[in-house]
Design a protein that fits this description.
Blueprint lengths: L1 E4 L4 H10 L6 E5 L10 E4 L5 H8 L4 E4 L7 H22 L2 E6 L10 E3 L10 H18 L5 E5 L2 E3 L8 H11 L4 E4 L8 E3 H12 L8 E3 L9 H12 L5 E4 L1 H7 L4 H6 L11 E2 L2 H7 L6 H12 L7
Parallel strand pairs: 1-2, 1-4, 2-3, 4-5, 5-7, 6-13, 7-11, 8-10, 9-12
C-alpha cells in the first residue's frame, strides 16, 4: 500500500497518477478524499488527530506527505510540527518509509541563484523557519537510524489543472485569459524557476520506489535557464495569442494590499524570492535517473491547451 497524506491538491493528484506504474494499491487520505484512479482506496481523516494519522499510515509500505495547510505563518507554526510529529511516530511504529514533498523556503536568501540540495539552510522568513524545523525533525530521525525517509523538494510550480494557489496560474494565466494585465511581484527582471507538476508527480513516485534514493534530499526535475518574470508573461501571452500586458506590485504595494487581502499580507515576507534570481538546480536527480525536465515552452503549451483552449491559438 502506498498512502498519500493530503490528497486533493495538484501534486497529490499527479503523484497518484504516477504511482499506478508501481502499485495498484493507493490510499488517498484527506478530510474529503476523491479518487484519482478507479481503484484508489479513500480514507477520510483529520490529519491533526494522532489516532487518525496512525490509522491512515497503518499497513503502508510508503507514506507520501503532500498536505498543504492554509498559507499563514501562525497556522503553519501551530500545525506543521504537530502533524509531522504524528506522521513520524506512525511511520516508525508501522515500519513505513516516508517521502516528504517540500519547498525551498528554508534556504538562505543569498543563495537562491543556483539552489542545490546542499544550499545553506538559513530561512529568512517565519514560514521558512517552520519548513527548516520539519527538515530537522525528519533527517534527525534518519541520522539516528529510526526512520527511512527522503525529502523531495521543488521550486514554485505550474502545470495543467491547477485551479488554485499556483502563482503563475492566479497572477498570469488567468488574468491574460480574461484580457487583464498579468501581475508579478517585486520585480519582473529576475529569473524564476518553476517545476512542471506532471514532472514533480512522476519524479516523486520514482523516488518513493527506489531503495537507494532514501535518507537524502532530492531536487525534483526542473527545466534549466528559467525566464524572467517579464519573459514568463511574454511567452504565456504569445502562446495564448493575447497582448502581454504586465503590472508589477512592489513591496510597498503588496504590504498595502495586505491590509485588505490576507493572502497578500502573508506574501510580504516572501517577496525576497522575487527581487533576485531564483534558479533551481535539479542536476542530481536528472543524472541519477536520466530524466529530462519538461521545457518551459512545452509546459506553457500544455497548460494553455488543457485549461485555456478557447483563448489559445495553438
Amino acid at each position: 500500500m502506498h498512502t498519500i497524506l493530503g490528497s486533493g491538491g495538484i501534486i497529490a493528484s499527479e503523484l497518484a497518477k504516477a504511482l499506478t506504474e508501481y502499485t495498484p494499491h493507493i490510499r488517498l487520505v484527506s478530510r474529503h478524499p476523491e479518487r484519482v484512479n478507479p481503484k484508489d482506496e479513500l480514507l477520510a481523516a483529520d490529519l491533526l488527530n494522532p489516532l487518525e494519522v496512525d490509522h491512515a499510515v497503518a499497513g503502508s509500505k510508503v507514506v507520501y506527505v503532500t498536505i498543504g495547510f492554509p498559507y499563514s505563518a501562525k497556522i503553519w507554526q501551530r500545525t506543521w510540527p504537530t502533524f509531522m510529529g504524528h506522521v513520524i511516530k506512525a511511520c516508525k511504529e508501522h515500519g513505513c518509509k516516508l517521502v516528504f514533498f517540500d519547498n525551498i523556503y528554508m534556504y538562505d536568501d543569498g543563495q537562491l541563484d543556483g539552489m542545490t540540495e546542499n544550499t545553506l539552510i538559513n530561512p529568512p522568513s517565519k514560514k521558512g523557519k517552520v519548513r527548516a524545523q520539519l527538515v530537522h525533525m525528519i533527517m534527525g530521525e534518519v541520522k539516528n537510524a529510526n526512520l527511512t525517509a527522503l525529502i523531495a523538494r521543488c521550486a514554485d510550480y505550474y502545470g495543467p489543472g491547477i485551479t488554485r494557489n499556483g502563482m503563475l496560474r492566479e497572477m498570469v494565466f488567468k488574468n491574460l485569459a480574461k484580457g487583464k494585465k498579468a501581475n508579478w511581484l517585486g520585480s519582473a527582471q529576475h529569473k524564476h524557476s518553476f517545476t512542471y507538476t506532471p514532472d514533480a508527480g512522476k519524479a516523486t513516485a520514482l523516488l518513493g520506489n527506489t531503495d537507494d534514493a532514501y535518507n537524502q534530499i532530492w531536487h525534483l526535475p526542473t527545466a534549466t535557464d528559467p525566464y524572467t518574470g517579464k519573459e514568463w508573461i511574454e511567452h504565456i501571452a504569445q502562446t495564448m495569442g493575447v497582448t502581454p500586458k504586465i503590472q508589477v506590485a512592489p513591496k510597498f504595494l503588496v504590504r498595502l494590499m495586505g491590509v485588505f487581502i490576507p493572502i497578500m499580507r502573508e506574501m510580504v515576507e516572501m517577496l525576497y524570492q522575487y527581487d533576485r534570481d531564483y534558479v533551481f538546480d535539479s542536476s542530481k536527480f536528472e543524472k541519477r535517473f536520466n530524466f529530462t525536465p519538461t521545457p518551459y515552452t512545452k509546459g506553457i503549451q500544455e497548460v494553455v491547451r488543457s485549461d485555456y483552449s478557447l483563448t489559445s491559438k495553438i
